[in-house]
Design brief:
three-stranded antiparallel sheet; manganese; DNA damage; Phosphorylase Kinase, domain 1; 452 residues; Transferase(Phosphotransferase), domain 1; Ser/Thr_kinase_AS; six-stranded antiparallel sheet; EC 2.7.11.1; cell cycle
Length: 452
């Protein structure tokens, strides 16, 4: 481009009769290499174009720009990666592993108890992040208080609590779970389970819910995302942040505050009633959960929360024709609009679909692989190996460097090898060897490479 273009904003202060100040803007000024513009001299008009007869359209200039003046091509063999050694991190007596998941309150990582050698999961909470969440600190303290006294095979167990006052972090060590019911649903093509598998999960949900109600605890947020699964297939009710405890001397289970996920709220909350029976709220949300895991849909839907609550408040829904008796009757009883007509836990336990397991009609849905690992191996082990054992490939513990091209070729060979093994042997076998991954990275500047 022959011309240099810039924007100039200049204020002109003029004294008018009323004493007000006016501002005029000079914009889109194009300077020529031969002509000079005196910025001190102001013009009466607000727009000034220099060298208009020789100027060309700016869009045409952009097409003529040589992109290589701004970006430089770098070959893959000039990008250097360094293999870094995993750093072992200890929190108390627990060895930290890889990240399992992340929610609105904090991260969840795997841990290993160095004394008991038990596999654990830790929820890492930061006080700064909790302060930005409405009622975040109160919900966490309420959950900790409840988990301390709740002990049941179908309720998540709080093993230990650790605090780091310097970093303002809180570590909640809990039972290790491989994933949530929602994650297992998402891994299926139809977003639903076979009836025999859904029946097993629903039985455990009712067992855990009956224990919570016996302890006068109302969960208020039963949904597949808050139901965790262990490697043995045990269901664990978790996330008691919005749970409410009924006073021991209260007349009934009346509640006044409705909290939880909108799609799982009952009509009494959607219609804005001031008070409602708390135990029937969990019955409703359990019915929506059963509907979801057996049909792959939700009984009530809406474009926004207002349309959703309007649909829930009316109580009109339909059950797919593929759902036959007695499951249809159970869903109808649990999703009754009026709380007094809704099934209670005793009626659910005595229902014929609950007491009799459906026949196996299709294959059991397995756990989805975690970061490509179908066996869900312990992620703490690589950190321990790096810490206590030296890699024989490392010469005198020197840092090793790899190029981008070498990494791409290695990944391509691994993919081809995996495809060949899959074709030769359909049954998956557990790999006995452990491959040390390459972490990212520090880049060395090489001669001949230009920085962009």
């Amino acid at each position: 481009m022959d011309n240099n273009m810039c924007n100039i904003t200049k204020s002109f202060e003029s004294e008018e009769a009323d004493g007000t100040d006016q501002e005029k803007e000079i914009s889109n000024v194009i300077f020529s290499g031969k002509d000079e513009l005196e910025l001190g001299e102001s013009a009466e008009n607000s727009e000034l174009w220099i060298n208009q007869e020789n100027s060309v359209d700016f869009d045409d200039d952009l097409e003529n720009i040589n992109i290589t003046n701004f970006f430089h091509r770098v070959d893959s063999d000039q990008i250097i990666y360094q293999k870094k050694k995993r750093k072992l991190k200890l929190v108390g007596k627990y060895v930290m592993g890889d990240l399992l998941g992340e929610g609105s309150y904090g991260k969840v990582k795997e841990m290993l108890d160095s004394e008991m050698l038990c596999r654990r999961a830790v929820k890492i909470l930061k006080q700064k992040k909790l302060r930005r969440i409405p009622n975040g600190e109160q919900n966490v303290q309420r959950e900790i208080k409840l988990l301390r006294k709740l002990k049941h095979k179908n309720v998540i167990n709080l093993v230990d609590e650790l605090y780091n006052h310097d970093k303002q972090k809180m570590y909640l060590i809990m039972e290790f779970c491989v994933g949530s019911l929602q994650g297992l649903l998402d891994s299926t093509p139809d977003k639903k389970f076979p009836h025999h598998q859904a029946h097993g999960y629903f039985l455990q949900l009712i067992d855990g819910l009956e224990y919570l109600h016996s302890m006068r605890v109302i969960h208020k947020d039963i949904k597949p995302g808050n139901l965790l699964l262990t490697l043995e297939g045990d269901l664990k009710i978790t996330d008691l942040g919005v749970a409410e405890t009924i006073d021991l001397f209260a007349k009934d289970d009346t509640c006044y505050i409705g909290q939880g996920s909108p799609a799982f709220q009952p009509p009494e909350i959607a219609n804005g009633l001031e008070s409602f029976p708390g135990f029937k709220v969990d019955i409703w949300s359990s019915g929506v959960t059963l509907y979801n895991i057996t049909t792959g849909f939700y009984p009530f839907e809406g474009d926004n929360i207002y349309r959703l609550f309007e649909s829930i408040g009316k109580g009109d829904y339909s059950i797919p024709d593929e759902i036959g008796e007695p499951l249809r009757n159970l869903l109808t009883g649990m999703l009754e609009k009026e709380p007094q007509n809704r099934f209670n836990l005793q009626q659910i336990r005595q229902h014929s679909w609950f007491t009799r397991r459906p026949s196996i009609s299709s294959a059991h849905v397995p756990f989805p692989p975690l970061k490509g690992d179908t066996w869900h191996n312990m992620t703490v082990l690589p950190y321990l190996i790096d810490h206590y054992y030296d890699d024989p490939c490392d010469s005198a513990n020197e840092a090793q460097y790899f190029t981008e091209r070498e990494l791409n070729e290695s990944e391509r060979r691994n993919v081809e090898s995996d495809n060949g093994n899959a074709q030769s042997n359909q049954s998956s076998k557990r790999s006995s060897g452990w491959k040390k991954p390459i972490s990212c990275i520090s880049v060395r500047s090489l001669p001949g490479c230009k920085q962009s």
